[in-house]
Amino acid sequence: MVGYPTKKTPQKNGPVQSTSKRGMSLEDDLNKTNAYYLELDRANVHKKPTPIMIATVSYPSRSQAKITEAYFKVPSTTDYNGVYRCKAVDYEAKETQSKTSFALAYLHEHQIAHMRSVLRHGALTFMIIRFTSLDETYFVPADRLLAFIDTTTRRSIPILWIRENGMRIPWRLTPPIDYLTCVDAYYFKGEMLND
Amino acid sequence: MVGYPTKKTPQKNGPVQSTSKRGMSLEDDLNKTNAYYLELDRANVHKKPTPIMIATVSYPSRSQAKITEAYFKVPSTTDYNGVYRCKAVDYEAKETQSKTSFALAYLHEHQIAHMRSVLRHGALTFMIIRFTSLDETYFVPADRLLAFIDTTTRRSIPILWIRENGMRIPWRLTPPIDYLTCVDAYYFKGEMLND
User: Which of A8, A76, A100, A135 has an alpha carbon within 20 to 30 A of B108's alpha carbon?
Assistant: First the structure.
């Protein structure tokens, strides 16, 4: 179900989260999109579970294990991966409230290293960046993103660069973020699907 | 560090766990193997984090979040995935203490469905099965495994079938389980690496 537009007080200086008029986070939209792709048998892509370090587990009953102490770990890879047209798909998705740029601080150093690695091994690697205040979502190929990072001293990527080097993903009802259209256009150059 | 052989009392009827003379679980061996592949830039494969449903999080300090109530979720995909020679890699690894067969009950229904799906999309899909009591580890291609499941009423796979249809992975020091050799032989039919 797509949330019906409701009045919300936008958080101006809060943590990065969706203030989209639709009220759905990028993660929700991507989960719906991937579920849609799976149902149509177009691709098999999943969000990786959040990595957690478990400290204590108790067993209140024989059949159930209850974790009573655990901590979040910093992810060492990107959040989403799977398979599409025989290729490995690997991407990271981030939201920002900025209207002018995407701060590189949102990307961990080892996530960048991971993107370099999977790109080298031939995965379809990219980022999905949403500017929540503008309600604009972009597909940014990793080869261009990494080239930008390697040749700049900037701490953020200007939205103008993203508009020039990425592709805007129009919001749709089903699927909300049809990023495979961008994958087809960028990596397969409009080749016909042969399956 | 590989554990030095030590005297251990093998658990005869306990839960599925390694009784390998080396004292290392299949998961440990695979983590070492994947770390080795990553270091040599041969492949990028990771174990997915265990899926957990978080119920309560407390904030003992501003910088730290502590999970105080959470539960294990049943995984909906296989445990390991990544990229190798441009292709998506997707596999499940299981240990059994049986000396004669692998019980299909160890595989969840949706893990089987997941294997079918990624196989259809062209991923290199397989299982790694270790018979801990025999200290034998096998690579079993998913196409053969699924064909077996589809044509049998058995609840387990006899080890004889696995020996005929899979490939034994010899244990080595580095990497402990060199499964990519099997992947090369089965999926690339000895094609030369062109990178």
Answer: A76
Note whether ipTM > 0.85 here: no
pLDDT over 70 at A195, yes or no: no
The per-residue pLDDT for A60 is 83
Q: Is residue B57 part of a domain?
A: no
Chain A residues 23-52 within an 8 A CB cutoff of chain B: 38, 41, 43-44, 46, 48-52
CA distance B180 to B34: 10
* Residues from chain B contacting residue A50 (CB–CB below 8 Å): 49, 52, 54
Range of the domain at A122: 26-187
In a domain, B2, yes or no: no
Is A19 within the bounds of a domain?
no
Domain count, chain B: 1
Residues in A touching B183 (Cβ below 8 Å): none
Segment (H or E) for A164: helix A159-165
**How many CB atoms neighbour CB A175 within 10 A?**
21
Binary contact (B65, A71; C-beta < 8 A):
yes
Determine, for residues A120 and B81 on separate chains, whether the beta-carbon distance falls below 8 Å.
no
Residue A24 has pLDDT above 80, yes or no: yes
Instruction: Give the integer Cα–Cα distance in Å for A162 and A141.
Output: 10
Q: Residue B66 corresponds to which tokens in the numbers above?
A: 């502590």
Q: How far apart are CA B83 and CA B182, in angstroms?
A: 15
Q: What is the pLDDT of residues B160-173, one digit of tens each?
A: 999 999 999 988 88
Q: How far is B90 from chain A (nearest CA, A)?
A: 8
pLDDT at A63: 76
Q: How confident is the model at residue B62 (pLDDT cuts 50, 70, 90)?
A: confident
Specify the CATH number for the domain of residue A41: 3.40.1350.10
Residue A155 belongs to a domain? yes
Contact criterion met (CB < 8 Å) for B52 and A49: yes
DSSP letter string over B45-94?
EEEPPPPEEEEEEEEEETTEEEEEEEEE---SS-SEEEEETTEEEEEEEE
* Range in A8-22, A28-42, B142-156 the model is least confident about: A8-22
A72, B50, B70, B71, B155 from A67: Cα distances, Å? 13, 12, 5, 6, 32
